[in-house]
Description:
Structural class of chain A: mainly alpha
Helix content of chain A: over 70%
Largest sheet of chain B: 8 strands, mixed
Oligomer: heterodimer
Radius of gyration of chain A: 21 Å
Distance between the termini of chain A: 65 Å
Strand order of the largest sheet of chain B: 6-5-4-7-10-9-11-8
Radius of gyration of chain B: 27 Å
Mean pLDDT of chain B: 89
Number of helices of chain B: 24
CATH architecture of the largest domain in chain B: Alpha-Beta Complex
Shape of chain A: globular
CATH superfamily of the largest domain in chain B: Spore Coat Polysaccharide Biosynthesis Protein SpsA, Chain A
Amino acid sequence: xxxxxxxxxxxxxxxxxxxxxxxxxxxxxxxxxxxxxxxxxxxxxxxxxxxxxxxxxxxxxxxxxxxxxxxxxxxxxxxxxxxxxxxxxxxxxxxxxxxxxxxxxxxxxxxxxxxxxxxxxxxxxxxxxxxxxxxxxxxxxxxxxxxxxxxxxxxxxxxxxxxxxxxxxxxxxxxxxxxxxxxxxxxxxxxxxxxxxxxxxxxxxxxxxxxxxxxxxxxxxxxxxxxxxxxxxxxxxxxxxxxxxxxxxxxxxxxxxxxxxxxxxxxxxxxxxxxxxxxxxxxxxxxxxxxxxxxxxxxxxxxxxxxxxxxxxxxxxxxxxxxxxxxxxxxxxxxxxxxxxxxxxxxxxxxxxxxxxxxxxx
Amino acid sequence: xxxxxxxxxxxxxxxxxxxxxxxxxxxxxxxxxxxxxxxxxxxxxxxxxxxxxxxxxxxxxxxxxxxxxxxxxxxxxxxxxxxxxxxxxxxxxxxxxxxxxxxxxxxxxxxxxxxxxxxxxxxxxxxxxxxxxxxxxxxxxxxxxxxxxxxxxxxxxxxxxxxxxxxxxxxxxxxxxxxxxxxxxxxxxxxxxxxxxxxxxxxxxxxxxxxxxxxxxxxxxxxxxxxxxxxxxxxxxxxxxxxxxxxxxxxxxxxxxxxxxxxxxxxxxxxxxxxxxxxxxxxxxxxxxxxxxxxxxxxxxxxxxxxxxxxxxxxxxxxxxxxxxxxxxxxxxxxxxxxxxxxxxxxxxxxxxxxxxxxxxxxxxxxxxxxxxxxxxxxxxxxxxxxxxxxxxxxxxxxxxxxxxxxxxxxxxxxxxxxxxxxxxxxxxxxxxxxxxxxxxxxxxxxxxxxxxxxxxxxxxxxxxxxxxxxxxxxxxxxxxxxxxxxxxxxxxxxxxxxxxxxxxxxxxxxxxxxxxxxxxxxxxxxxxxxxxxxxxxxxxxxxxxxxxxxxxxxxxxxxxxxxxxxxxxxxxxxxxxxxxxxxxxxxxxxxxxxxxxxxxxxxxxxxx
Lengths: 362, 609
C-alpha cells in the first residue's frame, strides 16, 4: 500500500532523467562522428592541443596543489588530464553541445513554436560547418557557452517571470561557466546589469531588492573566483595568476567593430530582438547586453569568435522568442532562420579551419 | 435557553445559523463563542435528553468500571462510568446525546447493564485526567519504550552501539599512538570528505526543492472547494511552560484560524508547577472549546511527554501542535485537511513551513530567518519530492490522530521528538508531506537563549540518529538504501558538520598564518587542499542557499546577511559541542527556550507577517 506509489515516482523520475540524458547525448552523436573522423585523420585542434600541453606539463611533475597556478580553466584541464587525448576532449565537447541544443530545443517547445519553425531554427545554427568545428573541437568554449545558455534561460525565468529558481540556475550556471573560462566574468557583469535594468521598475521602492538580485546572480561566480584566487595564492604564493583575462587587452573600438560586423550573421537574433522590443521596450536594453558581453570577451580576453556570436545569439533568440506569437511572426522567424543559414554558408567564417582541413586530416 | 435567560434571541439566531453552516452542534458553537457557560448548557441538554445531571468531576468514581475502558476511548466517545450499584448496574455519565449510537458504544465496552446520567465534556476530561493520572503518565512517559525499546531514546546507546563505540575508540587510540601523523592525516581527510558529502547532499536536496517553487501542494481552489460543513473535528495541542506573557496572543492567534471554532478542540498542556501560565490562562477566560490539561510532574520533563498527555485525550480526527507564540496562516488547517484527503492512507503527517515575524529585529533573528527560509522552503520540499524521510519541524506538524496513536506518539526521551517522529513515520511505511502554508514564530533574539535552543535540537538529532541506526537492517528494509543514506546525511550530517566546522576553520586560519611547508607534516598538500576547498565551497554553498531562501520569501533586505553564514555556523558549533556534552552527561534534559523576548509589538508582528 505504501511502497507502490513511492517506487513508481522514483522510477518515473529516473526514467525521465535517463530519457533526457539519452536525447541530449543523442543530439551530440553527429559531432562525435566528426570527432572520430578528425581524430582518425590525426587532427587535434589548437585549443585542445594547448589544453593537452598544459595537462602534460602538470602531470609531468606529479599533480599537486602548487599546480593551481596553471590549472585554469579547471574543468577542461582536469578533463585533459583524465582523458589525455584530443579525441576524448572532442567527444566530451560534442556531448556538451548536444546537451545545450537539447536544453534550447525544450525551451522552444515550451514557447509554443511550431515544429517546422523549431527545425529550421535549429538548422540555421547547427548546419554550419564552423559550428561543428567549435562544438567538437573547443571544449572550453562550448562548455562555457553551454553554461551560459542555461544561465540565460534561468535569467529569463528569474527576471521576466519572477521565478527564484531561475535566479538559482542563472547564478550557478554562470559560476559553472567560470570553470570553463574567465569570459564568464564578462557575461556575469552583463547579466547583472541587465537584471538591474529589468528589475528597476518591478522593485522600485522595495528595500534591498536590487542588491538582492545582484547577489543572486553574481554571488556564486564571485565566490568561486575568490576561492580560486585564494587557493592559488595559498599554494603558489602568487596573488593573481593569469586566468586569461586582462592580460592582453585589445582595442575596445576594434572589439566593438568585430561584434557589430558579425551581427549580420544572426538575423534570427535581430528579428527576435525587434519583436521583444515592440512588446516591452526595456527588453531592448537587455538584448544589447549580450553584445556588450561579446565585446568585453574580445577586448578583455581576446577570446571572441564569430561562431561564438552565432551560437550564443541564436540560442538566446530561440529561448527568448515571445510566447503566444502569431503565425505571421513565426513565419518571419522561419524566413530569418533560412536567411541566417544562407548567409553563413555563402560567407563562411574565415577564422575557423575549413571542413576539408580538419575533417580531411590535412 | 432564551426562556431561562441564558442567552439572547439574537445570539441564539446567530449560533443556529453558524451551527448550520459549520455542520456543528449548537452547543459547541455557543461554548466556542462563550455565549453560554458550560454548566448551564449541559443542564439544559440534560433536561432535553431527559436525564439527571451530575458534575462528575466532583464525584469519586468506581475504579472497577472505569479502568475497564481505555481513557482515550472514553474521551473520544464522551462518556464515563461513574458508579456501580450492589447489583452490578453501572451508572454512566454522558456528554453526548443518548441516541442509539451512543448507547451502542457504551454497550460495546461495559455491556447493557447501565443507567445514564448527563454531564459536561469538561467533567469527563477532568475526571479521566484525574483518575487515569498514573496510567496516562505511564503512557506519556514510557509508552513508546514499552512498545519497542529500540525506538526510544531512553537508552542513549544500545549495547551493540556501546561495544562498537568502544572498539572504534580503542582502534583509533592505538593507531594514533603507533602512527600519529598518518592518523591525523586520515582523520582530517575523512572529516573533510564527510563534510563535503553532507553539504553537497543538502545542496542537491535544496536544488530539487527549488524546482518545486511553483508547485503548490494545496491550491487556493482546493481550499475553496472544501465545504465547511464537512470539516472534521481538529485538535490543537499547545504545550506551554512559563509562557504566561504570550497566552493572550496565543488565543488571539488561534481565533484567527479560518476554521469553525466549534470544530476546534484546543488542548493547553501546562506543567503542574507552572502557576504563572495557569494564572494567565484563568485571567483570559478562554472559550469553552479550550481545555487545560495539567501534566503531572515526572521525569523526563519534556514537551513530547506533555504532547502524549494531550494525545491521550484528543478527540479530533486530525491533530496539530503549535507553540504558544505561533501565528499560523489562517487557512493552514483547511490546507492540511485537503492534503490528508488528497493523499493516500500512508500520508500520516503534513508539515507546514515555519518562518519568523521578527526577522529584522537583530542580527541573530535575521540569520535565523535565513536559515528557516532555506530549510522549510527548499530542503523540506526537496526531501518530500525525493521521498526521503522528513524530520519534522518543531511545530505546525499535522497528524491523523488515530495513526499517531498507532505508532506510539512522541518519544518523551528525545529532545527533538518531532524530527524523530518524522523518521519513525517513514520507518513504519508512512509518509510525511509538506503544505504550502506558513506558521510565523518568534525568532530567538538572545544569543544564550539561541545556543540553549540549538543545543537541544542538535542533541535531539544525535539521539535520533542513534535510535534509528540501532538496527540498520530494519531501516534499510523500511526506507531503502537511498532513504537510509539520506537520513544519515541529514540527521547525522547536520551535527557532524557543525562539530567539524571549528577544526576546519582552525586549519583555514593556520594556513593563513603559517607557510604551507610547516603544515605539510600534519596536512600533506592534498589533504590541506581538499580541506580548504571543502571549507570554501561548503560555506559558499550554504551562504547561497540561505540567500535564495530569503529571496524566495521576498525578504530582500536579508539576502546580504547570508554572507555572515560562516559566523552563524560558529554559533552552531558552540551549540553542537554543548549538545555532545549534554548527550553524555544529561541526555534527556530539555533546554527550555524562552519566548516572548521580542521587543516587537503586536502591530509590528502583524505587519511583518
